[in-house]
Write a structure and sequence with these properties.
The protein is of the alpha/beta class. It has three domains: 141 residues, 3-Layer(bba) Sandwich (FAD/NAD(P)-binding domain); 152 residues, Guanine Nucleotide Dissociation Inhibitor, domain 2, CATH 3.30.519.10; 101 residues, Guanine Nucleotide Dissociation Inhibitor, domain 1 (Orthogonal Bundle), CATH 1.10.405.10. It is 26% helix and 24% strand. The strands form four sheets. Strands 1, 2, 10, 11, 12, 13 and 19 form a seven-stranded mixed sheet that branches. Strands 8-7-15-16-17-14-18 form a seven-stranded mixed sheet, with helices on one face. A four-stranded mixed sheet has the order 5-9-6-20. Strand 1, helix 1 and strand 2 form a beta-alpha-beta unit. The longest helix has 17 residues.
Length: 444
């Protein structure tokens, strides 16, 4: 290990692997290490199924009770990709798409009044949905059309709405939308996690609505994609990219420590005392806890089912968002469902994951409203994880730390963190303008 690197990356979570690939492609000499024997770190996909039981310290199931164990790939932190979102653009930009196959998610649903409804995503669905009354449907249709046509560079599309000063609450009021419609628009379409956005300029709301619409237009069933064989394929894809550009990978390296001189990183030492020198370190919070602060907790329940979710037209994959207001909470509850159709479960089996940001001393109970939507549950694995953020921007120490993965069931917040880290590390924003127009291969 007596070499000098431009960057040493610790941890093989998605954020770290994406940044490792980006640094390697830009010509940096990269060493990438992980204490685990597998890729993915806390966002790994566990296979065979017995490994999932072991991870949660549970007794292994009876032999082939759930089909062949090797047919399972259980995501510890499941999330979907927006079809036109930032992560897909990064996949296309870096060429990592060549290592992955995707399947579109069958449906996007929202919870209201104890029931779930398909999220209306275009004018036709807006008029057909039972989520709203007749007059509200027309008001929502007009608002959806306005959002899709809105262009910050074309004042003709403004309709007396200033994206920089008109708040989200004001733009809802302008179109006469009621509280329920505001709820599913902000949380199930724009994917806000709470209602803080209501007092902010509406430009970001309109941008997010447009992203949802554009993502939906790519494949039609929903705006979401999911990789075959689980999310563990994503960090491995970026790891391959890094390796192609001469990145070096070392798994199963416990006991690594970051070394400093006068407050600035000088390298990483392994458990045998060998020092690899470097100019910068990129890592997840677990590798530098002293430079992080707790910012909350997220609770997740991974459930094994033998049936699709009731009231979703037997969909093999869905996302369901339960807006906080519907269940007297501050933060939303998320449900993501995948199945054997995605090569993550044995034939006929489903994986449903319910997650939220903890608000009480009894986080597991906070998932009850989501768990009740699933129908009979064969197995349930519950975890409560501390959420961490770095206490500084890393520019002084040159140690750049990612944030913990939040409760959302999509990767938009993950990508925001990646791109913010990239700008801090390089001093320049990532340039999406060089992206080639390409279509992900997606099975219908």
């Amino acid at each position: 290990m007596d070499e000098t690197y431009d960057v040493i990356v610790l941890g093989t979570g998605l954020k770290e692997c994406v940044l490792s690939g980006m640094m390697s492609v830009s010509g940096k000499k990269v060493l990438h290490m992980d204490r685990n024997k597998y890729y993915g770190a806390e966002i790994a996909s566990l296979s065979p199924l017995e490994d999932c039981f072991a991870h949660f310290k549970r007794e292994a199931p009876a032999k082939e009770q759930y089909g062949r164990g090797r047919d399972w790939n259980v995501d510890l932190i499941p999330k979907f990709l927006m079809a036109n979102g930032q992560l897909v653009k990064l996949l296309i930009h870096t060429g990592v798409t060549r290592y992955l196959e995707f399947k579109s998610v069958d449906g996007s649903y929202v919870y209201k009044g104890g029931k779930i409804f398909k999220v209306p995503a275009d004018e036709k669905e807006a008029l057909a949905t039972s989520l709203m009354g007749l007059f509200e449907k027309r008001r929502f249709k007009n608002f959806l059309q306005f959002a899709q046509e809105f262009d910050i560079d074309d004042p003709k599309t403004y309709k007396n709405v200033d994206a920089k000063t008109t708040t989200a609450a004001d733009v809802y009021k302008k179109f006469g939308l009621d509280g329920n419609t505001q709820d599913f628009t902000g949380h199930a379409i724009a994917l806000y996690r709470d209602d803080d956005y209501m007092s902010q300029p509406c430009g970001e709301l309109l941008r997010r609505m447009k992203l949802y619409s554009e993502s939906l237009a790519r494949y039609g069933k929903s705006p979401y994609l999911y990789p075959l064989y689980g999310l563990g394929e994503l960090p491995q894809g970026f790891a391959r990219l890094s390796a192609i550009y001469s990145g070096t990978f070392m798994l199963d390296r416990p006991g690594t420590t970051i070394e400093f001189e006068e407050g600035r990183v000088v390298g990483v030492k392994d458990n045998e005392g060998n020092l690899a020198k470097c100019k910068q370190v990129i890592c997840d919070p677990s590798y530098s806890p002293e430079k992080c602060k707790p910012v909350g907790k997220v609770v997740r329940a991974i459930c094994i089912l033998d049936h699709p979710i009731p009231n979703t037209k037997d969909a093999q994959s869905v996302q369901i968002i339960i807006p906080a207001n519907q269940v007297n909470r501050k933060k939303d509850i998320y449900i993501s469902v995948v199945s054997y159709a995605h090569n993550v479960a044995a034939k006929g089996w489903y994986l449903a994951i319910v997650s939220t940001t903890a608000e009480t001393p009894d986080p597991e109970k906070e998932l009850d409203v989501g768990l009740q939507l699933l129908g009979p549950i064969h197995e349930k694995f519950v975890s409560v994880s501390e959420l961490y953020e770095p206490v500084d921007d890393g520019k002084t120490s040159q140690v750049y730390i990612s944030k913990s993965y939040d409760a959302t069931s999509h990767f938009e917040t993950t990508c925001t963190d990646i791109l913010e880290m990239y700008e801090r590390i390089t001093g320049e924003p990532f340039d999406f303008s060089s992206l080639k127009t390409a279509q992900l291969e997606s099975e219908d």
